[in-house]
TrEMBL record:
InterPro entries: ADH-like_C, ADH-like_N, ADH_Zn_CS, GroES-like_sf, NAD(P)-bd_dom_sf, Zn_alcohol_dh. Residues 23-129 form the Alcohol dehydrogenase-like N-terminal domain. GO terms for molecular function: oxidoreductase activity; zinc ion binding. This is 2-desacetyl-2-hydroxyethyl bacteriochlorophyllide A dehydrogenase. The lineage of its organism: Bacteria, Pseudomonadati, Pseudomonadota, Gammaproteobacteria, Oceanospirillales. The keyword Iron-sulfur does not apply. It comes from Halomonas campaniensis. Signal peptide: none annotated.
């Protein structure tokens, strides 16, 4: 089968590997869509802290179940499904508390073990969720949006609160939409004017701020009757922005770090204590968050497909990914498509082609 391997930072190769076998409790997923995540881009750039090389990237996965192993219902063959890529041990304290998203022995598909930038992947069947109500594109975006759902749930965001999302990438866009579903007043902050316009025009985020030409704390105080944000979510992946985010949090407010970086994050302790601020990390997602996203997406409450701005076939990925990683490329979300002969006719009538 075809497999794209990240051999080292900045180096992708297309290889032929043996087809995987299907063990007990597993299912074989024929990969049809792979969303390119910030994690993939950081891994390609050598900036992902949990990453070793060589590695097959790809954890935003959707496809068709083509075989099952012992102990798995044969009726699942032929069903389309998405992957919950966080493989937890089930035994550590976090798992026993239901916090499987931060398992002590976490193995994330596409990060700690080889992922889905290939034709076929063997996956534990209990991490494959069948869904006939959503398109392949939507299914491939469920994981991305579940990250936002988890961050918002962890924040305990309440209706009417002022929520600030810093970083208008796909994760930030998911956080903003999930925060809006909670009834919060949402403000998106980014230095990229095009991203802010996209959030306003395509996602319906009514209030946006650009630190390049606006005093963000002053603008938030004006919006909040002299107060800052009840909750700030950082989705920048930028250490400097993450440190500055503390300055946007109101007294008794919460700061949620959705991003992860290979850096130390510092804050001024007197301000932190004076505001009795709550600082939260948000990692991955649980099945509850995936269920929330699927329900809202099926009801038309989440705009996902509009985020897909670029597409490529698997064979072309080594040529396209370097360009997608360049600042100013215009990529919001890139999607890898894998087509097979039996699907060619069905896929002939397709959404507009955005391959670049």
């Amino acid at each position: 089968m075809r497999t794209v391997v990240c051999q080292a930072p900045g180096h992708l190769t297309l290889e032929q590997r043996a087809d995987p076998s299907c063990g007990p409790g597993e299912a074989l997923l024929r990969i049809r869509r792979v969303g390119v995540c910030g994690t993939d881009i950081h891994a390609y750039g050598g900036n992902q802290p949990y990453f070793t090389y060589p590695r097959v990237l790809g954890h935003e996965l959707a496809g068709e179940i083509v075989a099952v192993g012992d102990g798995v219902d044969p009726a699942r063959v032929g069903q389309q499904a998405y992957v919950i890529p966080y493989l937890h041990c089930g035994e550590c304290r976090a798992c026993r508390r239901g916090r499987t998203n931060c398992c002590r022995r976490m193995q994330v598909i596409g990060v700690h073990r080889d992922g889905g930038m290939c034709d076929t992947l063997a996956v534990p069947a209990d991490h494959l969720v069948s869904d006939a109500s959503l398109s392949l594109d939507q299914l491939a975006l469920v994981e991305c949006l579940a990250i936002g759902a988890h961050a918002v749930r962890r924040s305990e965001l309440a209706e009417g609160e002022l929520a600030v999302v810093v970083g208008a990438g796909p994760i930030g866009m998911g956080v903003a939409q999930l925060a809006r579903e909670r009834g919060a007043r949402v403000v998106m902050v980014d230095t990229n004017a095009e991203r802010l316009a996209f959030c306003h025009e395509r996602l319906g985020i009514l209030e946006t701020l650009n630190p390049a030409d606006q005093d963000v704390p002053a603008a938030l105080a004006a919006l909040g009757d002299g107060e800052l944000a009840d909750v700030v979510f950082d989705a920048t992946g930028n250490p400097t922005a993450m440190c500055r985010g503390f300055d946007l949090v109101a007294h008794a407010g919460r700061y949620v770090l959705v991003s992860i970086v290979k850096a130390d994050i510092a804050f001024h302790d007197p301000d932190f204590h004076g505001r009795e601020m709550t600082l939260l990390a948000s990692r991955n997602a649980t099945s509850e968050d995936f269920d929330t996203v699927c329900r809202l997406m099926a009801a038309g409450h989440l705009e996902a497909s509009a985020m897909i701005t670029h597409r490529a076939e698997l064979d072309a990925l080594p040529d396209h990914l370097p360009a997608w990683c360049v600042p100013g490329s215009g990529v919001v979300k890139a999607m890898i498509e894998l087509e097979f002969p039996e699907h060619a006719e069905a896929e002939a009538v397709h959404a507009p082609d955005h391959r670049q």
